[in-house]
Amino acid sequence: MPEAAQVLDFVAPVGRENLAGRVYDELRAALFEGRMRPGQRLKIRDLAAAMQVSETPVREAVVQLARERALRLEAARSITVAGLSLEQYLELRTIRLELEGLAAEAAALRIAPGDLGALDRANTALAEAEEAGDATAANRANWAFHHTLYAAAAMPELLSIIESIWLRNGPMHTFLYPDARPTYPGRHRHLDIIDGLRARDPRATRAALCADLMEGGANLVALLGRMERDAAWNTPA
């Protein structure tokens, strides 16, 4: 008998209009929000069942995400979520500081009141999720905060580049809770970002965003270092 499809809870059913695009967008959201973990094995059949679609649009989306280096196709039916080495994570962080810092500066000059409200709500949701120990909700709220900020820059080409990096960076956030929860020497840097935006101060907004990336990710950098050292120690000579 054929193996039963595995029930997946990190993707949702999609509508029928523009089916291929909706499947792709749902998988991208799962990656952005850290709903998939690095190294996780996926099956097209399981994804199709979870999204209540045929396998064809799922296969097309998986191939596209493999081209974008978010997924790995190691064989005809072997699909895994790509991870990052510590070296890769640090290199991408260096790039993110420049690109996301630029977006933060631009957003400070163009932010609309509705965007400020959305940022407040996302940050409140993040704080509540962390307090409740809900890692899934925390990662979703964090992505909502950052994506709202970068979209407010009104620079669609820049946003597209940032999203391409977050496709690979998002799954790494599954390591944040509980082992590498972001910590800060003072208050949460998201509050400083919002203050910079309200003041229409590009320099302050960029500085707060860069501090968020450096301070908020410090525990993850340390964890990745320990994981790589442990892997090297346990590898036979």
TrEMBL record:
Origin superkingdom: Bacteria
Entry keyword annotation includes Transport: no
Taxonomic source organism: Muricoccus roseus
Keywords: DNA-binding, Transcription, Transcription regulation
GO terms assigned for molecular function: DNA binding; DNA-binding transcription factor activity
A family per Pfam: GntR
PANTHER family: HTH-TYPE TRANSCRIPTIONAL REGULATOR MCBR, TRANSCRIPTIONAL REGULATOR, GNTR FAMILY
Residue span, HTH gntR-type domain: 17-84
KW Cytoplasm (keyword) present: no
Protein name, UniProt field: DNA-binding transcriptional regulator, GntR family
